Amino acid sequence: MSSPVERFRELLRIPTVSHVDPGRVDLAAFDAFHDALERLYPRIHAALEREVVSDHALLYRWRGASDADPLVLMAHMDVVPVVAEEWQHPPFAADLTGTGATIHARGAIDDKGALVAIMEAVEALLADGTTPSHDVYLAFGHDEEIGGTGAQAIVDVLHARGVRPALVIDEGGAVVRGAVPGVSAPTAMIGVAERGILSLGLTVPERGGHASTPPAMPATARLARAIDRLRRRPFPRRLAPPVRAMLATAAPHASRSLRPVLRRLDRFGPLLARVLSRLGPELNAIVRTTAVVTELSGSDGQNVLATRARATVDIRLLTGDTVDSAVAHVRRAVADPLVEIDVLRGSDPSAVSPWRGDSWQRIARAVRVSLGDDVVPLPYLQLGASDSRWFTRISDAVYRFAPFTLSADERAALHSHDERIGVDTWLRGIEFYRAVILDR
């Protein structure tokens, strides 16, 4: 029988790639992934109830002694596209390097690492004859990377059945060092909320014509001015409640000089927000709503004036901001009625889950048991979006944490080339999910 690592590698080799264009999605790869799960985890498919939701999302139910207060373990089977020539190892070969110490593959962390670790934990517990004290659901989306319709459909199913989870755990933060300045201990960054998403279109129309006779303010120049004005007028800095919780929880573990500051956020909060905004992109993103232009378009010809110059602005909303308040800020910053501003898509920040109480303590216990007594569980604000945001509709305790110890370089490889995970790191993640299920 194959080992956990070999099963993981087999599933990593299946290119379940999401594309915004549905015509580019290879649905056969998702079917193959389903088939492989069924073959590799026979006990799960014999003992758990399984259903396919929204074509390719998967929902499993492991009946426990009680159907009240169930646990939901989430992950997604889709991965982002690759540029193969940028990789040192083929992205879907799941190569082992360093005498089997590291697995290289798209999805090794985001997010097949969690999905397969969950399956391994449940399969092993079934082999031990375990019956959970409460129902356990496994919810695996198939299109998280392009919006998460599968996860939304799963929530619809659970809501219709009156299922209200006591705890939901999805991908998110990891075990890292240096996430909070002045804290040297390893920290388990457990997302209690995530920022909202807003895409705006900035459009400047004009008559067009030959580029040899441009107007004084062509559409491209007006658009460039609007973009620069937005860059020069960033959203204000502040410490949102999840960030305050992170800093306050970190205070006992901080350096002596920083400890008094973190313990007096009522007094030092504005100063700390200003300092954090200057310490790099990640820390800046936890203290303000961010906005960046990601797409630009103008004329189709080198000597033709654009009839429509257009930019897309990606905005990530800090807890407390809304789609409406962000649009108002952009209008004020651009300050030009000839620049049309349209909402392409938008969702407000998620609700904030508690960083105290039974659900939080259950995760904290699992961290200590599986990842080490020296690891400090910290609440934090997740910067990116995940499928978990849909589950806040049916649960007040939704958390975002992948139980893997990751370096800065490993985190930087997410959605980039050379994604990889250490074998020992991944195996410890299996123990985390086992500990969460058993809650001991």
From TrEMBL:
InterPro entries for this protein: ArgE/DapE_CS (IPR001261), Bact_exopeptidase_dim_dom (IPR036264), Pept_M20A (IPR047177), Peptidase_M20 (IPR002933), Peptidase_M20_dimer (IPR011650)
Ranges of residues in domain Peptidase M20 dimerisation: 192-340
GO molecular function: metal ion binding; peptidase activity
Keywords associated with the record: Hydrolase, Metal-binding, Protease, Zinc
Swiss-Prot/TrEMBL GO biological process terms: proteolysis
PROSITE patterns: ARGE_DAPE_CPG2_2
Domain of life: Bacteria
Family to which the UniProt record says this protein belongs: Belongs to the peptidase M20A family.
Protein name in the entry: M20/M25/M40 family metallo-hydrolase
Organism name: Microbacterium hatanonis
